[in-house]
Design brief:
single chain; alpha+beta; twelve-stranded mixed β-sheet; two-stranded antiparallel sheet; 13 helices
Length: 411
């Protein structure tokens, strides 16, 4: 009976193909949006997590201010609580015995010029440990050394895009560029590397952190301090040593009053996953509204179909069809409509997601991979079928209740 009902339902839908296609359009749009959002959300999450992993599992980040719990707390990180005395205290082996590298970090975005050419790179003020921590070395020239940091040397290492924008095909090594009124000698040029570990090295200008503080930013604090532990097993104890050292340095006895926060790569990955999951879920919920709208449209069309096919219903009942047969037929029609719409939506969503992933990878020079959301696809099909059942129930009951004699008389 189910197979016969399905065959009858398909025949009914084929009789008016244009109306059938327009009816499922709402479902197609809704499922396409859900798959697209879920796929791009997963792709973004994979990209960010990959960048975080690229820094290394032994890397620990120290940021100023209280750890933000939401967007409203981001302003609390713009404080001057991390200073040179903190970096000096962390460098003492008796304070943090398992730390191998301590690197202060400041950053900004400033305009750089050479003759009549201009470009705005991201300024990173670091120590020579930058090359080791981020696994990057100049393709031409060299990185600055500890003596350059101590002497506030006006030297800079630039990324490949900065070189191309300011010098084109000309030689840049040894030339001087001007940043915020100061001349900086180019001592190194990075090869084309792109985005890695949350830093786009191609658009970077890397200076000694003391130079960046003194001549570009005009500050005496750090935006971040990066610490590397000697092994993954000692990351947790290193975090505790860092907190103890900084609390002693800042005269903090109550941990809830910390004016800094420490994050491992595992913490950062967890935070990113939580944020992207919540954001994706919210966007999917918004997109799912179109499924409900599509369900209302299907119910409306099915009610019209019941009215148009009154004589058909009467004839079937006169030949022995039961209420259950009639109800099953119209329920199956609604379910088939929504299920087919769901399948088309999944295919379209996957196709659009794949194209967008390629465009983003090429346009932004990012390693944005395509991710097919299997769970979202299963949910999309399930929800589509459920909508067909729910919104097809009323028209089906109305069709099943029709009197065969009155239905046959209907003009």
């Amino acid at each position: 009976m189910i197979l016969h009902g399905l065959k009858t339902a398909l025949t009914g839908l084929k009789t008016n193909k244009s109306r059938t296609i327009l009816t499922i359009l709402g479902i197609v749009i809704g499922v396409t949006a859900i798959i697209l959002i879920a796929s791009l959300g997963q792709g973004a999450q994979n990209l960010i997590l990959g960048e975080i992993q690229g820094i290394g599992s032994k890397t620990i980040g120290i940021s100023p201010g209280r750890q933000p719990k939401g967007l409203s707390d981001m302003a609390s990180t713009l404080t001057d609580s991390l200073k040179q005395k903190d970096a000096d205290a962390l460098n003492k082996k008796e304070n943090v015995p398992h730390a191998t590298d301590i690197m202060p970090l400041v950053f900004s975005s400033q305009n750089a010029t050479f003759e009549n050419q201009s470009y705005q790179p991201t300024i990173y003020g670091v120590s020579p440990l930058f090359a080791k921590i981020y696994d990057v070395t100049p393709e031409e020239g060299s990185l600055f050394d500890d003596e350059d940091v101590k002497s506030y040397a006006n030297v800079v290492v630039i990324g490949s895009k900065v070189k191309d924008e300011l010098f084109g095909n000309d030689n840049a090594l040894g030339q001087k560029i001007k940043i915020k009124g100061q001349n900086f000698k180019i001592i190194g040029i990075l090869g084309k590397k792109g985005q890695s570990a949350l830093v786009n090295f191609d658009t970077a200008a890397i200076l000694p952190y003391t130079t960046a503080q003194q001549y570009i930013l005009g500050i005496k604090y750090f935006n971040r301090i990066v610490v590397q532990a000697d092994s993954e097993a000692n990351v947790d104890i290193t975090v505790q040593d860092i907190k103890t050292t900084l609390r002693n340095n800042h005269d903090i006895t109550d941990p809830t009053k910390d004016d800094f926060f420490v994050e491992t790569q595992a913490d950062a990955m967890k935070s990113v996953s939580t944020v992207t999951d919540v954001l994706t879920l919210f966007l999917i919920s918004v997109a799912a509204i179109s499924l409900v709208v599509g369900g209302v449209g299907i119910m409306n069309i099915m009610l019209v179909s019941v009215t148009e096919r009154t004589r058909e219903i009467g004839l079937r009942k006169a030949l022995g069809a039961t209420r259950g047969n009639i109800m099953t037929q119209f329920l199956l029609e609604a379910t088939v409509l929504t299920t087919v719409g769901g399948l088309i939506g999944i295919l379209l969503g996957a196709g659009f997601s794949y194209l967008i992933a390629i465009i983003l990878s090429r346009a932004l020079n990012l390693d944005w991979g395509f991710a097919f959301p299997v769970s979202a696809s299963i949910i999309g099909i399930g929800v589509s079928a459920a909508i067909g059942l729910v919104f097809g129930l009323y028209p089906a009951r109305k069709a099943a209740k029709k009197s065969p004699i009155e239905a046959l008389r209907y003009e």
